[in-house]
Design brief:
The chain is an alpha+beta fold. It has eight helices and four strands, in the order αααβββααααβα. It is about 40% helix and about 10% strand. A four-stranded antiparallel sheet has the order 1-2-3-4.
Length: about 230
């Protein structure tokens, strides 16, 4: 298992983000994509030890396409030069929350977790209510050394605590959030040692598990909107 093909292919795609180059290098994509899926499979094997539900899918069903939707973007580049995957109980659906991996050159790769999808208002309301109802449990998860040493909770947030919640609540800062997520940066040179990166990913994701359990308990009754 190696990620050199991933790094090389995406670097070239960044410099040649057009359909002619993409189609001319289809075999390079196939090779890089296979290596990425092998990497995801190895990470899933590690995750299965502590979160078997999240590791119950095939890697190819967890990855995202490189093709970008440019209809509403000023950037008309047709491809996103990144290999991405979401390892969750329902595959790559954002809810229930799972473990996110994005590999892209330029020191922009990262390991992620939590709820990124703040467009789902019902999901936001469910998590806010859980934090309001169980402030000590939430605080204990965030204060645990295995968590606080590595993570800071990110996410888009309101300027004020939303209506219906106490502005003086001990977790008021997190009640402002519309999403609650974690990111661990990956430097380009870390892609040179795929086995070490697998170990790092599994270790970070294991530390995220209590955070995910809290969010997924809160989101137990959430239903994805029908298209």
């Amino acid at each position: 298992m190696e990620l050199q093909s991933v790094k090389a292919y995406l670097t070239e795609l960044q410099a040649n983000n057009n359909r002619d180059w993409y189609h001319a290098h289809k075999q390079d994509f196939v090779r890089a994509n296979a290596d990425f899926e092998a990497f995801i499979g190895a990470v899933m094997e590690g995750i299965s030890a502590f979160d078997p539900d999240a590791a119950s899918h095939h890697p190819k069903d967890l990855t995202f396409k490189l093709v970008r939707d440019t209809r509403f973007s000023h950037d008309k580049s047709p491809y996103q030069p990144a290999f991405r995957a979401h390892i969750g109980p329902k595959g790559k659906l954002p809810i229930p929350v799972g473990y996110y991996i994005m590999l892209t050159p330029g020191n922009q790769s990262f390991l992620g977790g939590g709820l990124f999808a703040d467009m789902f208002k019902d999901a936001t309301a469910m998590v806010r209510q859980a934090i309001a109802d169980k402030p000590e449990e939430w605080a204990d998860i965030l204060a645990a050394p295995s968590f606080s040493e590595y993570f800071t909770v990110g996410g888009t947030a309101l300027k004020k605590v939303p209506a219906g919640f106490d502005p003086e609540h001990p977790q008021a800062a997190y009640l402002k959030h519309k999403s609650w997520y974690l990111e661990v940066p990956i430097q380009d040179e870390e892609l040179d040692d795929a086995e070490q990166l697998v170990d790092q990913a599994v270790s970070m994701f294991a530390r995220m598990k209590p955070f995910h359990d809290f969010l997924n308990d809160a989101l137990a009754k959430f239903e994805m909107p029908s298209r």
